[in-house]
Amino acid sequence: MARVPKLIPVSELRDDVADVLKRVQRSREPLVITQRGRAAAVMLSVREYERAEYERQILRALARGEQEIAAGVGHDLDSVLEEADALLNADES
């Protein structure tokens, strides 16, 4: 079941930016900034943003692979493993 994101009004963010930033950095969860009662932006720690971007890259590569398989285009196992290693090594650095 999906978690309900934490909400914070922009006025609270404006009143105590340093504390809100500390909470976001400690938390692994996004913080939704509201303005006039509606979601206006999402705040994430840099660590969580980078993790999400990494996962998005992997998903794009998998989707591209599925499209290539459907189109009959193939790659040899060595080149696939080489690309996978490069992605994994990039995450570690």
Number of distinct helices: 4
Radius of gyration: 19 Å
Overall spatial form: elongated
Strand arrangement in the largest pleated sheet = 1-2-3
Class inferred from helices and paired strands: alpha+beta
Written as H for each helix and E for each strand, in order along the chain, the element string is: EHHEEHH
Strand element count: 3
Distance between the termini: 33 Å
Average pLDDT value? 88
**Low-confidence sequence ranges:** none
Q: What oligomeric state best describes the polypeptide chains here?
A: single chain
Strand content: 15-25%
Please bin the fraction of helical residues.
Answer: 55-70%
How many structural domains does the protein architecture include? 2
Notes on the structure:
- The chain is α+β, with helices and mostly antiparallel strands and 93 residues long.
- It has two domains: 6-44, YefM-like fold, CATH 3.40.1620; 47-92, no CATH class.
- Helices cover 61% and strands 16% of the residues.
- It has four helices and three strands.
- A three-stranded mixed sheet has the order 1-2-3.
- A hairpin with a 2-residue loop joins strand 2 and strand 3.
- It is elongated, with a radius of gyration of 19 Å.
- The mean pLDDT is 88.
